[in-house]
Amino acid sequence: MVKSVIFSKADLIPDEVNKTLTVKLYSLVTKKDNLAVQKVCELLNDTETIFPGTNMTLVFKTATT
Fold first, then answer.
1. Which among 63, 1, 7 has a CA at the least distance from the CA of 36?
2. Phi, psi (5° rounding) for residue 18?
3. Separation CA 57–CA 48 (nearest Å)
4. Which of 10, 2, 9 lies closest to 37 in space, CA to CA?
5. Backbone dihedral region of 49: left (phi > 0), alpha (psi from -120 to 50 degrees) or beta?
6. What is the pLDDT of residues 24-43, one digit of tens each?
7. Beta-strand (E) ranges in 9-56?
8. pTM for this one?
9. CA distance 62 to 56
10. Which of 9, 22, 25, 52 gives 13 a disulfide partner, CB atoms 3.0 to 4.6 angstroms apart?
11. Bridge pairing between strands 20-25 and 10-15
12. pLDDT bucket at 65, cuts 50 / 70 / 90
């Protein structure tokens, strides 16, 4: 699954007003993989990580959310 995420496409959506950089991951092959990635996104979002060199918080989403 990790390889699938690494090699899949994603959209980067900057929002300067809300100071966020959204990483929207494309859907994977199976529902099981999509649910796992969604859980990882939730964990990453809880960290409220700032993208280096900016004041934008990273927000991870899947195409299914």
1. 1
2. -95, 0
3. 6
4. 2
5. beta
6. 999 988 899 999 999 999 99
7. 10-15, 20-25
8. 0.86
9. 19
10. 22
11. antiparallel
12. low
